[in-house]
Structures are given as structure tokens and as C-alpha cells.
Design a protein that fits this description.
65% helix; single chain; mainly alpha; 218 residues
Length: 218
């Protein structure tokens, strides 16, 4: 897949239109399937000329790819940090970063979840799914096997089960239907997500991480 042409022909002194297109693309791709979103739809929501999509990105596909990568970039950088230096605090640090980023884009995980579930045997889905797997690489996200090998997990904790529990902590809050959140009186605002991140970090460290000495640390 062609890389997004972010630098080609950028008008001097004008970066606002590019950001408007990223925001509009994220909004529409979250709401609709990829094939249902047109260049004109994105441009109309952004309040720009459709030609600017080709000007900044080259194509709808490249805009989609750039939107995914730029939205997830802080989380990807945290994943690389964990990969380089796995520490007992790594799961909590990653969780905190993820919640912080997604508090600004609370419906973005729904898009990623939808992409992950696409039937990749269909040619129309292959390019879209490739964007997802380029961002969410298994060698970056499967951190609990490394934690287990480094003796950081409790002896009775299975690394695969821990990994799945971690994914549930990361993703599920953002997949809960709005009517269920309303029923529970929950609003996914930055304050609540910070509180949830702190509590889930405590659950991770007290439930699956090997404690140092007799102290209940995290």
C-alpha cells in the first residue's frame, strides 16, 4: 500500500486544512464503513476543497492510513518503549497512555475493532486490514509472555490469559454501547478515564504482577 503523501505540495503556512481533513476522516470512518465514505464527504465535513485530499495525502486510502497512524502514534510509541525495556510497570504505563489518547477520541477503538473483524479473504477488505496490522503488530502488543519469561508475573498467572484480560481492560470501556453507559451513569470523559486507568493499573499489578517483598506496590 502506498504511503500517505503527507509532504507533497503542502501550501506554505497552511496546515489547518490537513488537520481538518484528518479530523473529518476520523469522524466519518468511525461512523460508516470504509466504502461508504467518499472524498467529497470528507471534504464537506472538513469544509475544504476535495482536491486537497489528493494534495496532502494522494488518495482516500492514504488519508485513511495516515489518520489511523497519527491517532494511534502515542500508543505505538509507548509500545515500542515497552518492547525495548519491559518493566513491572509496563502494562500500567501502556494502559495509562492508551486511556489518555482515547479520551480525546473515545469512538476510535470501535473503528479499530471493526477493522480487526473484517473478512480478510475479501479483496476489498485486505488493504484496510493491512493498515490495522501495520499499526497493531503482534510482536509489539504481546508483552505478557515477555513479562512471564522475565519472572515478573505471579507463578499462578498464565501469560495468554493475562494478555486477553489486558486487551479487555484496554478496549471494552470504549465498546460499551452508549445506552448502557447512560444506564450506569458513566460518561467517558478524561476525568473518568483517568480514574479507570488508575484503578485498572492497580488491578493489574496487584492481581497478576509478582510483588516486591511483602509490600503491595504498583
Amino acid at each position: 500500500m502506498a504511503e500517505a503523501k503527507n509532504r507533497v505540495g503542502r501550501p506554505s503556512g497552511d496546515t489547518q486544512n490537513r488537520e481538518k481533513l484528518i479530523v473529518a476522516a476520523r469522524t466519518l470512518f468511525v461512523e460508516r464503513d470504509y466504502a461508504q465514505v467518499t472524498i467529497r464527504d470528507i471534504a464537506a465535513l472538513a469544509g475544504t476543497d476535495p482536491g486537497l485530499i489528493r494534495y496532502y495525502f494522494g488518495s482516500k486510502e492514504s488519508l485513511f492510513s495516515t489518520m489511523i497512524r497519527e491517532t494511534a502514534l502515542p500508543v505505538i510509541e509507548q509500545l515500542y518503549s515497552v518492547k525495548r525495556n519491559t518493566l513491572p510497570t509496563s502494562p500500567g504505563d501502556l494502559l495509562q497512555t492508551y486511556y489518555q489518547v482515547m479520551s480525546k477520541h473515545p469512538h476510535f477503538p470501535r473503528l479499530m475493532f471493526r477493522i480487526a473483524g473484517l473478512d480478510q479473504s475479501l479483496p476489498k477488505n485486505q488493504e484496510i486490514a493491512r493498515v490495522f496490522y501495520d499499526v497493531v503488530r503482534s510482536d509489539n502488543i504481546l508483552i505478557f509472555k515477555k513479562l512471564k519469561n522475565n519472572g515478573m508475573l505471579r507463578d499462578d498467572v498464565d501469560a495468554q490469559c493475562a494478555q486477553l484480560s489486558f486487551f479487555a481492560m484496554m478496549i471494552f470501556p470504549f465498546l460499551v454501547p452508549d445506552n448502557v453507559l447512560n444506564l450506569l451513569g458513566i460518561e467517558l470523559n478524561p476525568e473518568f478515564l483517568q480514574q479507570l486507568a488508575t484503578q485498572n493499573t492497580q488491578l493489574l499489578h496487584r492481581g497478576i504482577m509478582k510483588q516486591q517483598g511483602s509490600r503491595d506496590e504498583y
